[in-house]
């Protein structure tokens, strides 16, 4: 039986409560940690073996960091808690009546309480066929795919004899002006200019185009307008063309259509629209805004009191009545709250106070010496914001080794402008046809 | 035209000699460097964009290092030489009469002198279908594939309810007792034991089996017998079962047949037999031993005086009349020799002295505190050899950043036994069926 575990150092006669957590992102891990080494059996299920520090994933996609610098095996993070069991498995459904989670291989895991922390995915607004040409940036696989396409486009441009094709290959398009889109645009502009001036013989810096397309009236819409304006002008100084109020109409092999115009391109990245992963479907309930699940003030799901949703999966509201954003800090605070609440409730019978979000500040980085911070009451921009951004992100990494490795790479990059991970996966040459055609991996 | 390059800071009227180098491994890069910033046009063609420090690739396969720690873009290495042009392309043939190299996309590159430095591949002795189940360790792609299979086998074993299947999944088989096989076996034993005791709840250390299979009478046959004996007993102490005089008869899904016995396994690695890549076929000539190309004392190919072969591609002989081994130091020395020889010959008309190999010592590492060195006149084994091995390999890395990053990771690992890169690529769970069946990527 799934529940039996000979290694637990408790009396087998004692009936223990079982909490199952689906998803080991910021939220799920925080719940698990708060329940660590308690008299509660915890099972964490994830379809990946690692937790990913998503805020720095764009640096993997732009060849600045390695995947291992920002990911950590879930088992390693939770290994010291003897009451926590980790399963690498795909969840395919939930039966709230039988109180079981169904796995891809047909197995079922029983629960007393279930926490859904499955995160979010990009929203292609009904055009899922665009994903093949415009991957989002959610997993290591996608980051590597983007890195490969980007670097390969430069290699193909170097080989091309056709000036128009050269220009098309050196044009990168980022769709969506949120923090990820802005970070990618800034990083690609820096990387591209550096590679062209230093490493390529047959490319000209003025052939490089980086285009950031936003359907709404401004980029970084979650930030105050003065920060947005500054961010836009910083991006433009770095050579990024920012297009606002421009909807994307089509994404095809080697080109996109936006605002009625066809733009030929060597690399497209999707960063627009976020929707919750299919937890609402598992439960057979209606999703709220962006298919996120509506929750009670204690993060339980209405009508399903033993099931909870946190992070990007849930639609919780702040004290101002606004929907809480899909940010790591929200997921983490909700996870800590819920883990402690469950512990007190299960072991001591205490009812929890409602969850309250404490805004730690919102940030986006544009490039070298350029970032913005919004702390609500005050804001920060420029070099100081960039330094603060770097310090905070190094501090948030999971252990001393990763902090040291990332710091060294950042300092090295700051001094030399070199990026250490400019690797195209094997058989890259086999993927070089003479047109802008691209291959899937 | 392929030869035209507007960036070269020389008079276009001047007719310059063109040297084409195929392959940017240790040998090819050494030739290029020796010709750097000379009045000779150099074109380096490789089907990968990076040079790989192969001696540490087994550490990528066993989750100790990241690919970027041991690879460097070829453009970055050669970027400072304005006379060197780098092309990411697949060579498909050579026409020695027309003096052109043919590329995969149909383009042709003319040469005055051609250097073939295409390295070697594993030899499956006519059983190429085994490769799918038993990848070799030559590229980053293969190292990642092995890492993924190894880690996935442990995850599957944790989920399995069948004790026989658990044992099968925790059995790793390494075929070939050369340095790579020995290094892999030692590293897998260390990694496996650490993961089972620390991170997995439902696995027992005595279920772990690491089997090293060698068809010949002893492992590490290139080393003196006393070192081999010591290495074998070190491996056995680390928990590796060493089988010598055992030929492998079949490799299939989930199992191998060796010495008449079927061994069920979760991960097979091929490290037996090396053959030169198909440069001999391009030239339409007969390959020598292990399909390596016979060369004159100046490394030119008999009957084809403007074509040279170095490194694993060539069959050169030492002063003792023995075939030079397929080692990085041979390739590097031949590359340096040939680059200088070509420079002097082309620019000054000087005939080169024959190539002479200087043995810098041969080494293999078994694991923590255990390595062997053979310097010809004297040998070294144990902790001191291991320290020397580590120092030399850090020193041989391409730049200060990589030296620092690798040193930190090694020191961290030495102190904590943790390995930083235990990442299974995405959608790993989709690759978990309930049997020992495996999926290809």
UniProtKB/TrEMBL annotation, chains A, B:
<feature type="domain" description="FAD/NAD(P)-binding">
    <location>
        <begin position="18"/>
        <end position="335"/>
    </location>
</feature>
<keyword id="KW-0274">FAD</keyword>
<protein>
    <recommendedName>
        <fullName>NADH:ubiquinone reductase (non-electrogenic)</fullName>
        <ecNumber>1.6.5.9</ecNumber>
    </recommendedName>
</protein>
<keyword id="KW-0520">NAD</keyword>
<dbReference type="InterPro" id="IPR045024">
    <property type="entry name" value="NDH-2"/>
</dbReference>
<keyword id="KW-0560">Oxidoreductase</keyword>
<keyword id="KW-0285">Flavoprotein</keyword>
<dbReference type="InterPro" id="IPR036188">
    <property type="entry name" value="FAD/NAD-bd_sf"/>
</dbReference>
<dbReference type="InterPro" id="IPR023753">
    <property type="entry name" value="FAD/NAD-binding_dom"/>
</dbReference>
<dbReference type="Pfam" id="PF07992">
    <property type="entry name" value="Pyr_redox_2"/>
</dbReference>
<comment type="similarity">
    <text>Belongs to the NADH dehydrogenase family.</text>
</comment>
